Amino acid sequence: MLSVELHTHSDRSYDGRDPIDMLLTQAEAIGLDAVAVTDHDQIDASLKASEMAPEYGLVGIPGAEITSTAGHVLGLGIEERVPSGLTFTETIERIHDLGGIAVVPHPFQGARHGVAPNVSYEQLARADAIEVYNSRLLTGRSNRKAKRFAANRELPMTAGSDAHIAEMVGQAITHVGSGQRTIDGILQAIADGETTVVGQRTPWRISLRQAGGAAKRRLKYAAEDLISDTGRGLL
């Protein structure tokens, strides 16, 4: 079984703090086999992380957390950016066209852009896998609901730390039963349901720190966009 972290964010995400080398260092330190950097609607840092991963003894899985009109979708194994603003179904189709798999993170957490409030269960079941354990939780109710849904639909299950700072990488991992320590081998095993999930809750102090840092970074990016638009005469 390979220990895989499928949901992390670098400083290229509007709400991420740390550069990819810190994420990879943490993944190596805790003995993971593979890690995916899944920045919001960005792909460049993930591609770089995948290239650097072997230096840390890791398999680097390229991907992104894509903002569909219904909410967030993880595209794993993709090497091109999928645009935000597509429908849920279009987003999944685009991921498949790029040779990746579509995993729905925190589907029942509407406040965190979970898709379940905005799609039918039949649509949700078109995903290749469902993230049934997300470390950034309050009560665990949404995780339990995701697990019941996946079990009832016989869908593959994954976990993710949803780390926005390096020290949270590995809070939730997916054990993948792949005989191949490769990107393709790992993704195929996930799609085949050869997974078990292990996780623990992100400490509330860390969650508050992540949230506070994310709010500051959102303001920074908004200010940079405003300055850029002003300079181009758009305002």
UniProtKB/TrEMBL annotation:
Superkingdom, taxonomy of origin: Archaea
GO molecular function: 5'-3' DNA exonuclease activity; 5'-3' RNA exonuclease activity
Residue ranges constituting the Polymerase/histidinol phosphatase N-terminal domain according to the UniProt record: 4-70
InterPro entries assigned: PHP_dom, PHP_domain, Pol/His_phosphatase_N, Pol/histidinol_Pase-like
CDD domains (alphabetical): PHP_HisPPase
PANTHER family xref list: EXONUCLEASE, POLYMERASE_HISTIDINOL PHOSPHATASE N-TERMINAL DOMAIN-CONTAINING PROTEIN
NCBIfam families: CehA_McbA_metalo (NF038032)
Name listed for the protein in its UniProt record: PHP domain-containing protein
Originating species: Halocatena pleomorpha
